[in-house]
Amino acid sequence: MLSLYLEGFFDYMQSGGLVMWPLFFTAMFLWFGLGFRFHTLKRGSKKSVRTLIRKYRENKRIATKGLIDSAIVDAMKIIDENGYAVSPRKLLDDRFYGYQKQLKQYSRLVMTLVVIAPLIGLLGTVVGMIETFDSLASASLFSQSGGIAGGISQALFTTQLGLVVAVPGVIIGRLLDRRANTMELELEQIIDILCTEVNEKVSHEV
Amino acid sequence: MLRPNWSTYLKAAVWMVFGVAFVFTTVIMMNEAGGIHETKKKEAAANFEIQKMVKPKPKPKPKPKPKPKKAEVKRAAPTPSLSSSLGGIDTGLDAFMSDDAGMDDALLGDVNKDVVMTGESVDVAPKPAQRSAMEYPKAARKNGVTGYVLMNLLISKEGQVEKVKVLESEPAGVFDETAEAGVMGWSFTPAQYQGQNVKVWAKQKIRFDLQ
Known about the structure:
heterodimer; A: mainly alpha; 7 helices; B: alpha+beta; five-stranded mixed beta sheet; two-stranded antiparallel ribbon; 24% helix; elongated
């Protein structure tokens, strides 16, 4: 079964020419990026940020399953160490910079590869076309070889593969981007909520 | 959680494998559903011309000077026919060319034995009866290379090609394999000597032309 599949795969790769391999590696890196982003953009729990903060306050929740969870726990630690004298906003901003970066990790790679894949496919087609017309020029009048249609159909394999590589990448990449954006907003929300709490406490004491 | 741990990379690698498999399965299924099968390129037969080998003209023998004394003409010792043992090597020396005086029945011996003769010594030269097509080498076709291969063939009594030796080829090494492989599939009308079929080394030139 596997050998049959591999045979089909290699046949297909050969039918498109040399440009198929760059496309293959493009697909590999693309899916690696998608998988990485999918697993880093785990929120943790489905509850809202406010609820989560309250639960961690009351020690009803200890486990940190995802990015937002650990961000909240981190922020609380910082505030506890810092005390309530100074506004912790700057410290939290510094701390959360790492999280922001993690949200964006590989997003550029995915975007770039999604754009590049059809272009590589197009390049392969152009190369194939050049070869086809080249052979057409040298073909004789009555010979059966050097048909134009066969060459063009071969040349179009690369464009096809380029598109098939790109389309799922676009869809999944967009979904992940949306998720990353909401999580970014939530991180800011965490900072806002915690800072207002600190300020309230300080003003109470005064 | 700031530094992605190795398990994330591992999961991403799993994604990579399955994603690539998914993409290629999709493409291949697509093509099979569309009934696209890669058409095998038609093998183009090479155009080859058979060129008659021109026999080298034997040099006129110098006349022996007439001697006044009793004319006992010294005969040269008969040269054994080396052409059989030197199978296929054209020495170009007159003495070994088969149409010199040294060739007679005694030397050739019984034809029924497996005597290998050369194209010049037989009565009826072998002729190609059935030629299989040859595939023009791809690289050569692409670059418009033409040339020829001159071969020596050992043709059996039945007209089958038993051995092939390339004598010369132009450009060297481009068409050799193609020509050798192609010629092995040919069959000849066997050469004849004194009405009987004989084994023979015959030269065959195959020209590769793009027309």
